[in-house]
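Whiteboard transcription, Tuesday session. T.W. wrote the structure tokens on the left side:
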């Protein structure tokens, strides 16, 4: 008689084929672990599951043919890098080295029946699971800022998902005359990549300084403080004196409305007119998280900090930007770390073993200029039902440091990107 492990393993390859075949054939197959979303979180998780238990049936659902990475996309906007350096195909997923196949289904998940443990796909078919991992990233909240919707983003790009929007913002900056005003609006917390807007401001400032030196950059911020603030501000003073103006919440930085026709950003303290307006709107967990019933009234998904299982639906785990549960920032590094911890927990749970307590690390590099990097690091562990920061375990780059240290950090940033993308997609 075949073992349970062998049975589950035998099902691995058949799950994807069955989904593409007739529904009645598919209905007879046994379920395994389904991962929805092939970003830094989901693709890492699918691979980690296979590494941890080669006999586990793992299916990854991702509609796009290639992944476009946000880290380093600010360098594309500043003309320092091509979009192709951000693009990663899923070609390797069908045949992942000695650990065996991950079944890759190129469809969008459109619904989850949590009771029957089935995921519905955009072609009308559905597929069963023992455990489901949701990793859909963020959706932009086009209902949150009056005047700003999908049509407005064609005029005032958000560029907060990499791809066409990244190129649009780059092209608008390139077309802007010298002496123009660039405005970047930043939403309140939480949002994808806390230091991202300030890295973007830095690299746009580098572009303006070198190509359009009479121009100005205004950051309208819905907050009074931001990640790596002292490091960013010191670097702006040194590299871009007088070029960047940061307007915090208390000085009228919160944008309450926009008018794309005139590129006007309205705040409680007055109106600002931009030549190029980069509006980063509030965000929430991707749509599938809402329809699966794992997002709460905040729009994000509360999770158990040991297993990443949803607090709202059993047997569904949420990782990456879509999840909330403590101090961990929404970064690719965090997404990758959470994916591995979640995979270990899921691999234990499907074998009816007790999951171990994880410890997770995040490091976030930001480029302030080419060859000038700064970073922040943190360590997180479950405490009081949340992922809490381990006191004294992290920190930022030194405030006072020679250029050689900033150069090293810029090189580490490049190495980190190469390493993580080859681990996840290569
Ligand atoms: C400008 C910018 C710079 C950044 N720089 C850094 C950095 O330097 N370092 C860092 O660590 N992080 C950085 N980040 C943050 C990082 O990009 C995100 O934290 C990370 O991408 C989150 O990974 P994720 O897998 O949760 O979501 P995503 O990367 O968004 O992946 C989600 C995936 O799910 C798929 N998906 C969505 N819905 C469905 C569905 N219904 N069915 C199937 N598939 C679906 C999508 O197609 C996508 O492939 C940056 C972000 C921005 C915007």
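and on the right, the sequence the group agreed on:
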């Amino acid at each position: 008689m075949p073992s349970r492990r062998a049975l589950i393993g035998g099902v691995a390859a058949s799950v994807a084929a069955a989904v593409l075949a007739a529904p009645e054939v598919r209905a007879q197959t046994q379920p395994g672990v389904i991962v929805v979303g092939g970003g830094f979180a989901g693709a890492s998780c699918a691979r980690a599951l296979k590494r941890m238990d080669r006999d586990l049936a793992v299916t990854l659902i991702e509609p796009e043919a290639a992944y476009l990475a946000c880290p380093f996309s600010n360098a594309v906007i500043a003309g320092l890098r091509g979009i192709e350096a951000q693009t990663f195909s899923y070609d390797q997923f069908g045949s992942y080295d000695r650990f065996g196949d991950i079944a890759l289904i190129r469809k969008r998940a459109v619904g989850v029946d949590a009771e029957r443990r089935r995921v519905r796909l955009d072609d009308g078919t559905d597929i069963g699971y023992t455990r489901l991992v949701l990793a859909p990233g963020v959706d932009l909240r086009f209902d949150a800022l009056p005047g700003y919707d999908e049509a407005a983003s064609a005029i005032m790009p958000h560029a907060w998902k990499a791809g066409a929007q990244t190129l649009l913002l780059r092209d608008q900056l390139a077309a802007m005359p010298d002496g123009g005003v660039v405005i970047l609006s930043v939403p309140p917390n939480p949002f994808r990549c806390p230091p991202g807007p300030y890295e973007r401001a830095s690299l746009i400032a580098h572009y303006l300084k070198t190509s359009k030196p009479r121009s100005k950059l205004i950051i309208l911020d819905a907050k009074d403080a931001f990640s790596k603030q002292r490091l960013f501000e010191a670097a702006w003073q040194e590299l871009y004196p007088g070029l960047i103006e940061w307007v915090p919440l208390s000085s009228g930085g919160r944008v309450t409305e926009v008018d794309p026709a005139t590129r006007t950003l309205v705040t409680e303290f007055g109106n600002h007119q931009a030549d190029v307006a980069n509006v980063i709107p509030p965000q929430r967990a991707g749509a599938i998280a809402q329809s699966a019933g794992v997002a709460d009234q905040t729009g994000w998904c509360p999770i158990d900090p040991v297993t990443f299982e949803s607090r709202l639906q059993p047997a569904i785990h949420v990782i990456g930007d879509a999840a909330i549960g403590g101090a961990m920032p929404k970064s690719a590094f965090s997404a990758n770390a959470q994916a591995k911890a979640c995979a270990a927990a899921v691999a234990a749970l499907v074998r009816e073993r007790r999951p171990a307590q994880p410890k997770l690390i995040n490091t976030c590099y930001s480029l302030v200029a080419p060859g000038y990097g700064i970073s922040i690091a943190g360590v997180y562990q479950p405490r009081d039902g949340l992922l809490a920061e381990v006191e004294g375990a992290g920190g930022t780059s030194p405030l006072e440091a020679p250029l050689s240290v900033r150069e090293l950090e810029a090189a580490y940033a490049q190495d980190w990107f190469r390493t993580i993308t080859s681990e996840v997609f290569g």
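Someone added at the bottom: Residues 36-42, 61-64, 67, 70-71, 73-74, 108-109, 135-137, 160, 192-193, 196, 200, 286, 288, 320-321, 330-333, 335, 364-365 surround flavin-adenine dinucleotide (CB under 6 Å).
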